[in-house]
Structures are given as structure tokens and as C-alpha cells.
UniProtKB/TrEMBL annotation:
It comes from Pedobacter aquae. Residues 63-137 form the Disease resistance R13L4/SHOC-2-like LRR domain. SUPFAM superfamilies: L domain-like. This is Leucine-rich repeat domain-containing protein. The keyword Transmembrane applies. PROSITE patterns: LRR (PS51450). Keywords: Leucine-rich repeat, Membrane, Repeat, Transmembrane, Transmembrane helix. The keyword Membrane applies. Pfam families: LRR_14 (PF23598), LRR_8 (PF13855). The chain crosses the membrane at residues 12-32.
Length: 225
């Protein structure tokens, strides 16, 4: 529906959800082995002890909610594509993670991380990053690092107590889906308009008035309030 002031943002239609589903399916396919004859689901390892028995075979490693004494061993998983370290009491990102060049999805949410390593962009194939429930994030500095990541397409920053977004959010020029739900944002910064590849923005459970966003005209961007 068009108005004289520009396109009117509507709540999601079935078509909108299909578009989002396509994005998520593409990410899922990226994590799976690229073999035409792959018929068996990829095994997900859930303990370091088990995974270290055959490190070259580990594609998915889920260590969430664990206390990790030998996190440096992660560097041995050279073929790792999915890593979940959610709620593992991390106060920083282990340097060993930056050696995982095949990593595509990394979940380090619900920890106590403030700064990402300066060489975090060594994860050249990382497509999706979870940094939600990280109240200590130094967001401006971390966004500078993330802006150098050529493959990053999906970023999760939910439930981080964010009241304003740094202006350098505009540097995330490769981002297609940005999750900012459960924060304290009162408006969507104009810098978001500069993210030319952004297709989906989630700002649910923020004190944002949808009509204020409508007046700014974000074009074809799908926004979930």
C-alpha cells in the first residue's frame, strides 16, 4: 500500500516470511557438507573428549552450558563449520577460534565477552554470529572488527541492553539479517539505511513506535516489530 510519504511498512506477509526462510535455509546448507551423495545427517559432538578422538571428522561441535578447562584444544578441529560455546563462562574469545578457517556459524552468546580479538576477521568463512545476551560488549569497537568480515551475513545482538547503536553500524555492508530484539532502542538510527544489502531487521521487544519508523521510509526492508 502506497502513501504520499512513501511505502507503508506492513506486518509480515506470507511472502515476507518465505524470503526470510530462504535466507535461513541458505545458511543451513552452508553448514552441511557439500557432497552430492551426502545422505546421512552430520554428527554433532557434544563433549571435547569425544570430539578429540577424531578431530578431523568434527564438523559440528556443541559445548553450550559447559565449563571448559581445555578450550585451546578447539584449534585441532580444522574442518569445523559450526561451533556453539553459549553459556560457557567465557570472558573473552579464545584466540584458538580465529584459526578455524572453515567455521561458518559461531554462537558465543550468553557469556561475559567485551571485546572481540583484533584478528577475529581471520574467520574468513564465518556467515552467522551470535553475540546475544552479552551485556559487556564494547559495541563500537566490536563493530569495527565485524565490518572487516567479508562473509558475515547474519548478526545476533539481542538482549544486550542496547539503548543506542553506534554510527559505525553503517559499516556492516555485507549484513543481510540483523537481530536487535529485546533491547532498549527507542528508534532505528538512520545509519541502518546505509546497509544496502540488509533484507531483514528484527527489533521486537524494543520501545520503538512503528509509526515513527514508517515516516522515515526504509523502502523494501522487512522490519519485525
Amino acid at each position: 500500500m502506497e502513501s504520499k510519504k512513501g511505502p507503508f511498512l506492513q506486518r509480515f506477509t506470507v511472502y515476507d516470511y518465505l524470503q526470510l526462510l530462504i535466507i535461513m535455509v541458505c545458511i543451513l546448507l552452508a553448514v552441511l557438507p557439500h557432497k552430492a551423495d551426502a545422505q546421512v545427517a552430520v554428527k554433532e559432538y557434544t563433549t571435547l573428549e569425544e570430539a578429540l578422538k577424531e578431530p578431523e571428522k568434527v564438523i559440528r561441535l556443541n559445548l553450550q552450558n559447559q565449563h571448559l578447562d581445555h578450550i585451546e584444544e578447539i584449534a585441532k578441529f580444522k574442518n569445523l563449520q559450526y561451533l556453539n560455546l553459549r553459556n560457557t563462562h567465557l570472558s573473552s574469545v579464545p584466540q584458538e577460534i580465529t584459526t578455524l578457517e572453515n567455521l561458518k556459524v559461531l554462537d558465543i552468546g550468553d557469556n561475559e565477552i567485551a571485546l572481540l580479538p583484533k584478528n577475529f576477521d581471520a574467520l574468513k568463512n564465518l556467515t552467522e554470529l551470535y553475540l546475544d545476551k552479552e551485556k559487556n560488549l564494547q559495541l563500537e569497537e566490536d563493530l569495527e572488527i565485524l565490518s572487516r568480515m567479508k562473509s558475515l551475513r547474519i548478526l545476533h545482538l539481542e538482549n544486550n541492553g542496547i539503548s543506542t547503536l553506534p554510527k559505525n553500524i553503517s559499516k556492516l555492508q555485507k549484513i543481510e539479517a540483523l537481530y536487535l530484539g529485546d533491547n532498549k532502542l527507542q528508534t532505528i538510527p538512520v545509519e541502518i539505511k546505509e546497509l544496502k544489502k540488509l533484507k531483514f531487521l528484527d527489533v521486537h521487544h524494543n520501545p520503538i513506535i512503528p509509526t515513527d519508523v514508517i515516516k522515515r521510509n526504509y523502502g523494501g526492508l522487512k522490519i519485525n516489530f
